[in-house]
Protein: Acetylornithine aminotransferase
Amino acid sequence: MTAKHEVNRAQFDEVMVPCYNPMEIIPVRGEGSRIWDQQDKEYIDFAGGIAVSCLGHCHPAMVKALTEQGNKLWHLSNVMTNEPALRLAKKLTEVSFAEKVFFANSGAEANEAALKLARRWAADVHGEEKSEIIAFKQGFHGRTFFTVTVGGQAAYSDGFGPKPGDVTHLPYNDVDALAAHISDKTCAIMMEPLQGEGGIVSPTPEFVQAVRELCDKHNALLIFDEVQTGNGRTGEFYAYQGLGITPDILSTAKSLGGGFPIGAMLTTTELAQHMKVGTHGSTYGGNPLACAVAEAVVDVIAQPETLAGVKQREALFRQGLETINAKYGLFEEIRGKGLLIGAALNEQWQGRARDVLVAAGKEGLMVLVAGANVVRFTPSLVITEDEINQGLARLDKAISTLV
Structure:
């Protein structure tokens, strides 16, 4: 067996496709909201694997579910169903508007299924000409060719040849632009109920209301991409529940498995009937191992005290970030909801979000960015108050090195 120190960062450049530029550190173990690297240096984790590790690292409920299922049954294929998949699907319908569930492996795949369902429904019910998908600038919906085209960041979708057609991008939070453009040829609007990669941008109540009303007026479906906002991240089980409107289709992934890859598309019985046998599929989607872990995650997150705890922790983060800002004057605004928080840098600090990330890493703190000007925090939903305070102290120290 290879000793741990024989694996190093240089090997990444030798053997990995260069899509990423990872940090020098290689984490080897984690517990709760702490991680240790190969040199046994400790880090507090305010990144959560980009809003994935919702119960932190090695949560006992997840370890138990994984171990028990790992000793029973890993994979079957969709020629048969399995108990964990059925239990998880039932629980997801109980915590949301949904009546039907389709399992996939990732957020992109859940979004792919959502978009294909919307197009299939429109073709079946209204005819082929009703095919336009409206999405929003700076949105992010995944990296498959369809989802990256629907995402509103051309840098991610350009350079791969002809794109899937009939996709329109409008400004987020602009009711007038949407009202002026939408028509009876629009099949669906796809949106994040809080833009994540685009800079942690919350929708205005007027915008959310208008989106739902305009969809209804033009017989278009509303797809909520809750890959980053779902599973308790905003303090509701799903973010739509705090916005006063209900989508027709919802995608969920990231924290659904708490670190184990799984995604799901949720919808109504009426819409689901357009996905007949053979219309869509997934080799691993709904496999027993992933579903058993996700079921344990949902059980913990759905508890009222977990969801209430998210809002308490948000208050601690906001308070701590405001204190840091009073000292160094680098944030223009602290935005977001629940534990999806963005600290937007002011004019003097433009383009320096990554500098903050790197400096934080040196002080033993893992944070994220959302673009060049927003420092992003997506920690565990059950991170302790002590870990929050220690992490904020490390962030303070990191920023002091940049001033």
